[in-house]
From TrEMBL, chain B:
It comes from Guptibacillus hwajinpoensis. The keyword Transcription applies. This is GntR family transcriptional regulator. It holds the Pfam family GntR. One of its GO terms (molecular function) is DNA-binding transcription factor activity. It comes from the Bacteria. SUPFAM superfamilies: Winged helix' DNA-binding domain (SSF46785). The keyword Transcription applies.
Amino acid sequence: MITFENVSKRYLTKHALSDVNVTIPEGKIIGLVGSNGSGKSTFMKMIAGLVGPSEGKVMIDQEPVSRRTANKVAYLSELDAYYSFFSVKETIDFFASQFQDFDVEKANDIVDFMEVDSSQKVKHLSKGNRGRLKIALTLAREVPVILMDEPLSGLDPMVRDSIVKGLLSFIDLEKQTVIITTHEVTEIEPLLETVIAIRNGKVLALEDVETIRERDRMRIVDWLKKMYQEEA
Amino acid sequence: MGEEFNPSKPIYLQLVDRISWEIIKGERKTGEKLPSVREMAIQSGVNPNTVSRTYNELERMEIVETKRGQGTFVTEQKEKLVELREQLKINHIQNFIEEMKQMGFSSEDMIEGIRTYVTNEKENQS
């Protein structure tokens, strides 16, 4: 279980997060939604231990986030960060050498499932296939927390579809929690069980998506707009 | 990407409706195995926990049965399916009447309308 206790983060004078208190439920696919610059990436990086809080504590299973908790979290960054001269297979082997929890067989299965040719060099992959490879590398880690920062951004509908199917095929919600940030919320709405709305570094709400449909009769996007208006 | 869902109704209930409908239309037969939770999630692009909830609800309605270690099956109790069919009929009639009322039609108008429609349809077929 991940908890934020009075967490703030300042970059010089800018508040990326201010006084965030939230407990993230386990075994769900959670959408972290908010406009650009709302603090989504900072929120994710804090769970991954890539950014430390200026104040407060981020905990995973009652343990403060640190290098030791890094083995519980797989983080898919917005950016590409691979060696372009490696082939897909070499990249998988490289990841296996870096993470003890990395399941090579699973990585190969996912790459096959998504129909990426593993003998290709990363630099020769299309943007869509690089997106697919990133997903494979993230999901192949046997960790309780999977973070995906904009996994669908800039990819065409076919690639987005195969990424969603890959995600559904290879996660295990009995053991794993997935947090996704995306601007394509409507597209992955049926995938999300819970949403966290974030604005100007503040968490506005954590809500069950089925409840939003039933009670507010709204899509997540419209619900988010409403939350933003109420807060403004 | 998966299928379209109505944003103002829980997806698990929409899946319950959809599967019930498929059973009544005979697309899913008595005793037939439903896809596993994961398969169904992938087919419909829906959260696996939502599919579990759908299966639980169908089980509560006694339309499906879960056999341990084997999966979820459409019930073999025919009377349950007859009941379901009746229920769906009533739901459709309710919706129809509700909308007709909103347009200002009386019960007599509706019955008369249906009678005329059905007669015309029969004539067109013959």
